[in-house]
Design a protein that fits this description.
The protein is an alpha/beta fold and 433 residues long. The strands form three sheets. Strands 1, 2, 3, 4, 5, 6, 7, 8 and 9 form a nine-stranded parallel beta sheet that branches. It folds into two domains: 328 residues, TIM Barrel, CATH 3.20.20; 90 residues, Sandwich (Immunoglobulin-like). Helix 5 runs parallel beside helix 6 and helix 10 packs across helix 11. Strand 3, helix 4 and strand 4 form a beta-alpha-beta unit.
Length: 433
Protein backbone atom coordinates (compact mmCIF):
# COMPACT_ATOMS: atom_id res chain seq x y z
CA UNK A 1 0.00 0.00 0.00
CA UNK A 2 1.28 3.44 -0.98
CA UNK A 3 0.07 6.47 1.00
CA UNK A 4 1.10 10.04 0.16
CA UNK A 5 0.15 12.44 2.96
CA UNK A 6 0.30 15.76 1.16
CA UNK A 7 -0.55 17.27 -2.21
CA UNK A 8 -1.91 20.71 -3.10
CA UNK A 9 -3.83 19.59 -6.18
CA UNK A 10 -7.18 20.89 -4.92
CA UNK A 11 -5.80 24.41 -5.50
CA UNK A 12 -5.70 23.53 -9.21
CA UNK A 13 -9.29 22.26 -9.19
CA UNK A 14 -11.10 25.44 -8.07
CA UNK A 15 -11.76 28.48 -10.25
CA UNK A 16 -9.55 31.41 -9.24
CA UNK A 17 -12.45 33.88 -9.20
CA UNK A 18 -15.53 31.95 -8.03
CA UNK A 19 -13.70 29.35 -5.90
CA UNK A 20 -16.15 26.79 -7.28
CA UNK A 21 -14.78 23.41 -8.42
CA UNK A 22 -14.18 23.61 -12.14
CA UNK A 23 -11.36 21.34 -13.29
CA UNK A 24 -11.83 17.57 -13.18
CA UNK A 25 -8.70 15.45 -12.73
CA UNK A 26 -10.27 12.41 -14.42
CA UNK A 27 -8.10 12.84 -17.52
CA UNK A 28 -4.41 13.52 -17.88
CA UNK A 29 -3.51 17.11 -16.98
CA UNK A 30 -0.43 19.29 -16.60
CA UNK A 31 -0.68 18.83 -12.85
CA UNK A 32 1.59 16.57 -10.83
CA UNK A 33 -1.45 14.67 -9.56
CA UNK A 34 -4.48 13.54 -11.56
CA UNK A 35 -6.35 10.27 -11.70
CA UNK A 36 -4.25 8.68 -14.49
CA UNK A 37 -1.02 9.69 -12.72
CA UNK A 38 -2.21 8.29 -9.37
CA UNK A 39 -3.11 5.02 -11.07
CA UNK A 40 0.21 4.81 -12.93
CA UNK A 41 2.15 5.65 -9.77
CA UNK A 42 0.34 3.00 -7.74
CA UNK A 43 -0.91 5.47 -5.11
CA UNK A 44 -3.53 3.80 -2.90
CA UNK A 45 -4.36 6.75 -0.62
CA UNK A 46 -3.71 10.39 -1.51
CA UNK A 47 -4.19 13.11 1.10
CA UNK A 48 -5.55 16.29 -0.50
CA UNK A 49 -4.65 19.34 1.56
CA UNK A 50 -6.98 22.35 1.72
CA UNK A 51 -4.57 25.23 2.23
CA UNK A 52 -5.14 28.86 3.10
CA UNK A 53 -2.46 31.33 4.28
CA UNK A 54 -5.08 33.43 6.06
CA UNK A 55 -6.55 36.82 5.20
CA UNK A 56 -6.58 40.29 6.75
CA UNK A 57 -9.33 42.86 7.23
CA UNK A 58 -8.74 46.47 6.25
CA UNK A 59 -7.71 47.29 9.83
CA UNK A 60 -5.10 44.51 9.87
CA UNK A 61 -7.02 42.05 12.03
CA UNK A 62 -7.41 38.44 10.96
CA UNK A 63 -10.32 37.86 8.58
CA UNK A 64 -11.63 34.59 10.01
CA UNK A 65 -14.79 34.61 7.88
CA UNK A 66 -12.92 34.80 4.59
CA UNK A 67 -10.46 32.11 5.70
CA UNK A 68 -13.40 29.86 6.57
CA UNK A 69 -15.03 30.57 3.19
CA UNK A 70 -11.85 29.72 1.29
CA UNK A 71 -11.28 26.56 3.30
CA UNK A 72 -14.86 25.39 2.72
CA UNK A 73 -14.47 26.09 -1.00
CA UNK A 74 -11.48 23.74 -1.08
CA UNK A 75 -13.15 21.04 1.02
CA UNK A 76 -16.15 21.30 -1.28
CA UNK A 77 -13.81 20.77 -4.25
CA UNK A 78 -12.34 17.64 -2.67
CA UNK A 79 -15.82 16.16 -2.22
CA UNK A 80 -16.81 17.24 -5.77
CA UNK A 81 -13.70 15.55 -7.19
CA UNK A 82 -14.57 12.29 -5.43
CA UNK A 83 -18.21 12.51 -6.57
CA UNK A 84 -17.18 13.23 -10.18
CA UNK A 85 -15.01 10.10 -10.13
CA UNK A 86 -17.04 7.79 -7.92
CA UNK A 87 -15.99 4.70 -9.87
CA UNK A 88 -12.32 5.38 -9.18
CA UNK A 89 -12.11 7.48 -6.00
CA UNK A 90 -13.62 7.23 -2.52
CA UNK A 91 -13.47 9.51 0.51
CA UNK A 92 -11.54 8.07 3.45
CA UNK A 93 -13.17 8.83 6.80
CA UNK A 94 -11.91 5.81 8.74
CA UNK A 95 -9.29 3.11 8.54
CA UNK A 96 -12.01 0.66 7.47
CA UNK A 97 -12.64 2.84 4.40
CA UNK A 98 -9.07 2.12 3.27
CA UNK A 99 -9.82 -1.60 3.26
CA UNK A 100 -13.06 -0.96 1.37
CA UNK A 101 -11.21 1.12 -1.23
CA UNK A 102 -8.68 -1.68 -1.75
CA UNK A 103 -11.45 -4.25 -2.13
CA UNK A 104 -13.32 -2.08 -4.64
CA UNK A 105 -10.23 -1.18 -6.65
CA UNK A 106 -10.52 2.52 -5.83
CA UNK A 107 -8.01 5.15 -4.76
CA UNK A 108 -8.71 6.59 -1.34
CA UNK A 109 -8.87 10.37 -0.92
CA UNK A 110 -8.32 11.77 2.56
CA UNK A 111 -9.11 15.43 3.30
CA UNK A 112 -6.69 17.50 5.36
CA UNK A 113 -6.41 21.14 6.40
CA UNK A 114 -3.14 23.02 6.01
CA UNK A 115 -3.24 26.09 8.23
CA UNK A 116 -6.23 26.64 10.57
CA UNK A 117 -6.63 30.37 9.89
CA UNK A 118 -10.42 30.26 10.21
CA UNK A 119 -10.21 29.27 13.90
CA UNK A 120 -11.02 32.08 16.34
CA UNK A 121 -11.68 31.98 20.07
CA UNK A 122 -15.39 32.24 19.29
CA UNK A 123 -15.64 29.61 16.55
CA UNK A 124 -12.61 27.31 16.75
CA UNK A 125 -13.91 24.20 18.49
CA UNK A 126 -17.29 24.13 16.76
CA UNK A 127 -15.66 24.70 13.36
CA UNK A 128 -13.31 21.80 14.02
CA UNK A 129 -16.31 19.55 14.68
CA UNK A 130 -18.00 20.75 11.50
CA UNK A 131 -14.87 20.12 9.44
CA UNK A 132 -14.71 16.65 10.96
CA UNK A 133 -18.33 16.09 9.89
CA UNK A 134 -17.24 17.01 6.35
CA UNK A 135 -14.54 14.32 6.36
CA UNK A 136 -11.39 16.13 7.52
CA UNK A 137 -9.09 13.57 9.14
CA UNK A 138 -5.75 15.46 9.30
CA UNK A 139 -4.98 19.06 10.26
CA UNK A 140 -1.91 21.25 10.63
CA UNK A 141 -2.45 24.06 13.12
CA UNK A 142 -0.54 26.68 11.13
CA UNK A 143 1.09 27.32 7.81
CA UNK A 144 4.22 29.48 7.89
CA UNK A 145 2.33 32.43 9.42
CA UNK A 146 1.25 32.41 13.06
CA UNK A 147 -2.43 32.41 13.98
CA UNK A 148 -4.85 32.07 16.90
CA UNK A 149 -3.63 28.51 17.57
CA UNK A 150 0.11 29.14 17.67
CA UNK A 151 3.29 30.22 15.94
CA UNK A 152 4.02 29.14 12.40
CA UNK A 153 7.43 28.28 10.99
CA UNK A 154 8.29 31.90 10.17
CA UNK A 155 7.41 33.24 13.64
CA UNK A 156 5.38 36.14 12.22
CA UNK A 157 1.72 36.96 11.69
CA UNK A 158 0.19 37.59 8.28
CA UNK A 159 0.72 41.35 8.70
CA UNK A 160 4.45 40.83 9.30
CA UNK A 161 4.52 41.47 13.05
CA UNK A 162 6.51 39.04 15.19
CA UNK A 163 4.76 36.38 17.23
CA UNK A 164 5.79 34.60 20.40
CA UNK A 165 4.56 32.05 22.90
CA UNK A 166 4.22 28.84 20.92
CA UNK A 167 0.89 27.02 21.24
CA UNK A 168 -1.97 29.19 22.54
CA UNK A 169 -4.73 28.19 24.93
CA UNK A 170 -7.08 27.79 21.97
CA UNK A 171 -4.41 25.71 20.25
CA UNK A 172 -4.26 23.35 23.23
CA UNK A 173 -8.04 23.02 23.25
CA UNK A 174 -8.02 22.27 19.51
CA UNK A 175 -5.32 19.58 19.91
CA UNK A 176 -7.35 17.95 22.69
CA UNK A 177 -10.49 17.99 20.54
CA UNK A 178 -8.59 16.59 17.55
CA UNK A 179 -7.40 13.74 19.78
CA UNK A 180 -10.99 13.12 20.88
CA UNK A 181 -12.37 13.16 17.34
CA UNK A 182 -9.60 11.04 15.82
CA UNK A 183 -8.16 13.78 13.59
CA UNK A 184 -4.42 13.32 12.96
CA UNK A 185 -2.34 16.21 14.36
CA UNK A 186 0.08 17.42 11.67
CA UNK A 187 3.22 19.17 13.00
CA UNK A 188 4.58 20.32 9.64
CA UNK A 189 4.88 24.13 9.34
CA UNK A 190 5.05 24.71 13.11
CA UNK A 191 7.53 27.01 14.81
CA UNK A 192 9.83 24.85 16.94
CA UNK A 193 8.42 26.21 20.22
CA UNK A 194 4.91 25.38 19.00
CA UNK A 195 6.11 21.93 17.98
CA UNK A 196 7.30 21.12 21.49
CA UNK A 197 4.09 22.50 22.99
CA UNK A 198 2.05 20.25 20.70
CA UNK A 199 4.15 17.23 21.63
CA UNK A 200 3.47 17.96 25.30
CA UNK A 201 -0.26 18.47 24.67
CA UNK A 202 -1.16 15.55 22.40
CA UNK A 203 -2.21 12.23 23.84
CA UNK A 204 -1.91 10.35 20.54
CA UNK A 205 0.75 9.94 17.81
CA UNK A 206 1.41 12.86 15.44
CA UNK A 207 2.47 13.14 11.82
CA UNK A 208 4.77 15.54 10.01
CA UNK A 209 2.87 15.32 6.74
CA UNK A 210 5.52 16.92 4.50
CA UNK A 211 8.82 17.77 6.23
CA UNK A 212 12.38 16.63 5.63
CA UNK A 213 15.58 16.32 7.69
CA UNK A 214 17.27 19.46 9.03
CA UNK A 215 20.61 17.67 9.49
CA UNK A 216 20.82 17.16 5.71
CA UNK A 217 19.32 20.51 4.72
CA UNK A 218 19.10 23.21 7.44
CA UNK A 219 15.82 24.81 6.32
CA UNK A 220 13.32 26.25 8.83
CA UNK A 221 10.67 23.86 7.49
CA UNK A 222 12.75 20.77 8.21
CA UNK A 223 12.87 18.76 11.43
CA UNK A 224 15.86 18.60 13.75
CA UNK A 225 17.14 15.28 15.06
CA UNK A 226 15.53 16.03 18.44
CA UNK A 227 12.18 16.65 16.80
CA UNK A 228 12.41 13.44 14.76
CA UNK A 229 13.33 11.49 17.88
CA UNK A 230 10.35 13.01 19.72
CA UNK A 231 7.96 12.07 16.90
CA UNK A 232 9.29 8.50 16.96
CA UNK A 233 8.98 8.27 20.76
CA UNK A 234 5.39 9.47 20.36
CA UNK A 235 4.67 6.69 17.85
CA UNK A 236 4.41 9.16 14.99
CA UNK A 237 5.75 9.29 11.44
CA UNK A 238 7.91 11.77 9.48
CA UNK A 239 6.69 12.03 5.87
CA UNK A 240 9.57 13.16 3.63
CA UNK A 241 8.84 16.22 1.47
CA UNK A 242 10.13 16.21 -2.13
CA UNK A 243 10.50 20.03 -2.41
CA UNK A 244 13.98 20.78 -3.73
CA UNK A 245 14.87 23.56 -1.22
CA UNK A 246 14.02 21.15 1.64
CA UNK A 247 16.27 18.43 0.23
CA UNK A 248 19.56 20.17 -0.51
CA UNK A 249 21.35 23.44 0.23
CA UNK A 250 21.85 23.52 -3.54
CA UNK A 251 18.27 22.80 -4.73
CA UNK A 252 19.34 22.35 -8.33
CA UNK A 253 21.24 19.21 -7.37
CA UNK A 254 18.26 17.51 -5.70
CA UNK A 255 17.18 14.22 -7.24
CA UNK A 256 15.08 11.21 -6.34
CA UNK A 257 18.19 9.79 -4.67
CA UNK A 258 18.29 12.87 -2.41
CA UNK A 259 14.75 12.09 -1.24
CA UNK A 260 15.89 8.58 -0.33
CA UNK A 261 18.90 10.10 1.48
CA UNK A 262 16.38 11.81 3.78
CA UNK A 263 14.53 8.52 4.25
CA UNK A 264 17.86 6.90 5.13
CA UNK A 265 18.62 9.63 7.66
CA UNK A 266 15.36 9.04 9.53
CA UNK A 267 15.86 5.27 9.46
CA UNK A 268 19.40 5.58 10.86
CA UNK A 269 18.23 7.97 13.57
CA UNK A 270 15.00 6.34 14.81
CA UNK A 271 14.38 3.19 12.77
CA UNK A 272 12.30 2.28 9.74
CA UNK A 273 8.95 2.40 11.59
CA UNK A 274 8.77 6.19 11.62
CA UNK A 275 9.20 7.41 8.03
CA UNK A 276 6.87 7.76 5.06
CA UNK A 277 6.06 9.80 1.95
CA UNK A 278 4.66 13.36 1.87
CA UNK A 279 5.34 14.55 -1.66
CA UNK A 280 3.96 18.13 -1.72
CA UNK A 281 2.96 17.50 -5.35
CA UNK A 282 1.38 20.54 -7.03
CA UNK A 283 2.73 22.77 -4.27
CA UNK A 284 6.49 22.51 -4.64
CA UNK A 285 9.45 22.18 -7.01
CA UNK A 286 10.13 18.51 -7.61
CA UNK A 287 13.60 16.92 -7.87
CA UNK A 288 14.87 15.19 -10.97
CA UNK A 289 13.29 11.73 -11.16
CA UNK A 290 10.18 12.61 -9.11
CA UNK A 291 8.48 15.10 -11.38
CA UNK A 292 4.95 13.82 -10.70
CA UNK A 293 2.98 10.95 -9.16
CA UNK A 294 3.86 8.55 -11.97
CA UNK A 295 7.46 8.47 -10.75
CA UNK A 296 6.76 7.22 -7.21
CA UNK A 297 7.67 3.59 -8.10
CA UNK A 298 11.23 4.85 -8.61
CA UNK A 299 11.45 5.30 -4.84
CA UNK A 300 10.85 1.58 -4.44
CA UNK A 301 13.58 0.81 -6.96
CA UNK A 302 16.04 3.09 -5.16
CA UNK A 303 15.20 1.55 -1.77
CA UNK A 304 15.76 -1.92 -3.24
CA UNK A 305 19.06 -0.78 -4.72
CA UNK A 306 20.15 0.37 -1.25
CA UNK A 307 19.37 -2.99 0.29
CA UNK A 308 16.04 -2.35 2.03
CA UNK A 309 14.00 -5.48 2.61
CA UNK A 310 10.55 -5.89 1.08
CA UNK A 311 8.98 -5.63 4.54
CA UNK A 312 10.80 -2.38 5.31
CA UNK A 313 9.88 -0.92 1.92
CA UNK A 314 6.22 -1.66 2.67
CA UNK A 315 6.60 0.32 5.90
CA UNK A 316 8.11 3.34 4.15
CA UNK A 317 5.58 3.38 1.31
CA UNK A 318 2.50 3.28 3.50
CA UNK A 319 2.35 0.73 6.31
CA UNK A 320 3.79 3.17 8.86
CA UNK A 321 1.23 5.80 7.91
CA UNK A 322 -1.60 3.26 8.00
CA UNK A 323 -0.53 2.22 11.50
CA UNK A 324 -0.58 5.84 12.65
CA UNK A 325 -4.09 6.39 11.27
CA UNK A 326 -5.25 3.24 13.03
CA UNK A 327 -3.66 4.30 16.32
CA UNK A 328 -5.16 7.81 16.23
CA UNK A 329 -8.63 6.50 15.51
CA UNK A 330 -8.36 3.71 18.09
CA UNK A 331 -7.50 6.30 20.75
CA UNK A 332 -10.41 8.56 19.80
CA UNK A 333 -12.99 8.89 22.57
CA UNK A 334 -15.74 10.41 20.43
CA UNK A 335 -18.90 8.27 20.44
CA UNK A 336 -19.35 6.04 17.44
CA UNK A 337 -22.02 6.98 14.91
CA UNK A 338 -25.42 5.97 16.25
CA UNK A 339 -29.07 6.44 15.42
CA UNK A 340 -30.46 9.54 17.06
CA UNK A 341 -33.40 11.53 15.68
CA UNK A 342 -33.37 11.51 11.87
CA UNK A 343 -32.50 14.87 10.28
CA UNK A 344 -33.05 15.67 6.60
CA UNK A 345 -31.63 19.09 5.61
CA UNK A 346 -33.34 20.92 2.77
CA UNK A 347 -30.05 21.51 0.99
CA UNK A 348 -27.43 19.24 -0.49
CA UNK A 349 -23.76 19.69 0.34
CA UNK A 350 -22.21 22.20 -2.05
CA UNK A 351 -25.60 23.56 -3.10
CA UNK A 352 -25.89 27.07 -4.54
CA UNK A 353 -28.39 29.35 -2.79
CA UNK A 354 -29.72 32.47 -4.49
CA UNK A 355 -30.63 34.51 -1.39
CA UNK A 356 -27.97 36.14 0.78
CA UNK A 357 -30.15 35.73 3.90
CA UNK A 358 -31.66 32.27 3.40
CA UNK A 359 -33.70 30.26 5.86
CA UNK A 360 -31.75 27.09 6.67
CA UNK A 361 -33.98 24.18 7.58
CA UNK A 362 -34.17 20.45 8.15
CA UNK A 363 -36.95 17.99 8.85
CA UNK A 364 -36.66 16.05 12.12
CA UNK A 365 -38.26 12.60 12.37
CA UNK A 366 -38.50 10.43 15.47
CA UNK A 367 -38.60 6.65 15.39
CA UNK A 368 -41.49 4.86 17.14
CA UNK A 369 -40.95 5.13 20.88
CA UNK A 370 -38.16 7.69 20.50
CA UNK A 371 -38.49 10.90 22.55
CA UNK A 372 -36.81 14.17 21.58
CA UNK A 373 -34.71 16.18 24.00
CA UNK A 374 -35.94 19.68 23.01
CA UNK A 375 -33.04 21.37 24.78
CA UNK A 376 -30.60 19.60 22.44
CA UNK A 377 -31.79 21.30 19.25
CA UNK A 378 -29.14 23.43 17.59
CA UNK A 379 -28.17 24.91 14.27
CA UNK A 380 -24.43 25.59 14.05
CA UNK A 381 -23.50 28.12 11.39
CA UNK A 382 -19.83 28.76 10.60
CA UNK A 383 -18.77 27.64 14.06
CA UNK A 384 -21.43 29.54 16.03
CA UNK A 385 -24.23 27.66 17.79
CA UNK A 386 -27.79 29.01 17.52
CA UNK A 387 -31.13 28.01 19.04
CA UNK A 388 -33.38 27.25 16.06
CA UNK A 389 -37.11 27.58 15.58
CA UNK A 390 -38.85 24.20 15.86
CA UNK A 391 -42.35 23.22 14.78
CA UNK A 392 -43.21 19.94 16.51
CA UNK A 393 -46.20 19.41 14.21
CA UNK A 394 -44.23 19.46 10.97
CA UNK A 395 -40.87 18.47 12.47
CA UNK A 396 -39.28 21.51 10.84
CA UNK A 397 -36.07 22.83 12.40
CA UNK A 398 -35.00 26.20 10.97
CA UNK A 399 -32.79 29.25 11.34
CA UNK A 400 -32.86 32.55 9.47
CA UNK A 401 -29.63 34.52 9.99
CA UNK A 402 -30.08 38.03 11.38
CA UNK A 403 -27.77 39.56 8.75
CA UNK A 404 -27.01 38.88 5.10
CA UNK A 405 -24.01 36.71 4.31
CA UNK A 406 -20.98 38.45 2.85
CA UNK A 407 -18.71 35.49 2.08
CA UNK A 408 -19.17 32.90 -0.67
CA UNK A 409 -19.02 29.59 1.23
CA UNK A 410 -20.59 28.61 4.55
CA UNK A 411 -21.15 25.48 6.63
CA UNK A 412 -24.29 24.62 8.58
CA UNK A 413 -24.90 21.76 11.00
CA UNK A 414 -28.30 20.61 12.27
CA UNK A 415 -28.07 18.76 15.58
CA UNK A 416 -30.62 16.94 17.75
CA UNK A 417 -30.57 14.33 20.54
CA UNK A 418 -33.11 11.95 21.94
CA UNK A 419 -33.87 11.62 25.65
CA UNK A 420 -31.18 8.95 26.04
CA UNK A 421 -28.53 11.36 24.76
CA UNK A 422 -28.00 9.81 21.31
CA UNK A 423 -27.16 12.67 18.93
CA UNK A 424 -27.53 13.10 15.19
CA UNK A 425 -25.59 15.75 13.22
CA UNK A 426 -26.09 16.64 9.57
CA UNK A 427 -23.57 19.09 8.11
CA UNK A 428 -23.64 20.79 4.72
CA UNK A 429 -21.52 23.29 2.79
CA UNK A 430 -23.49 25.85 0.81
CA UNK A 431 -22.51 28.56 -1.66
CA UNK A 432 -23.88 32.04 -2.27
CA UNK A 433 -23.49 34.27 -5.36
Amino acid sequence: MVIDTHCDTVLRIVDDDTWLPRYDIRVKTRHMVDLPKLQTGGIDVQVFASYTPGYLLADGRADYAKANSRLLALLNAVRWTVDQNAKSLTLIRSDADIDDAQRDGKIGVMASIEGAYSFSEQTGIELLRQYHDLGVRMLSLTWNYSNALGEGAEGIYKDGTKSSGGLTGLGRAVVAEMNRLGIVVDVSHLNETTFWDVMAATQVPVIASHSSVHALCPHVRNLTDRQIQAIAANGGVVQINYHRPFLSVDPDTATLATVVDHIDAVVVLVGVDHVGLGSDFDGAKMPVGLEDATKVPQITRELLRRGYSEADIHKVLGANTRRLIQDVQALSTAPAASRGPALSPDLESGQDLTRTQPTLSATLTLAPGQALDPDSLAVILDGIRYLPAYDATTGMLSLTPEASFEEKFHVVTFSASDRSGVTTRETRIFHLP
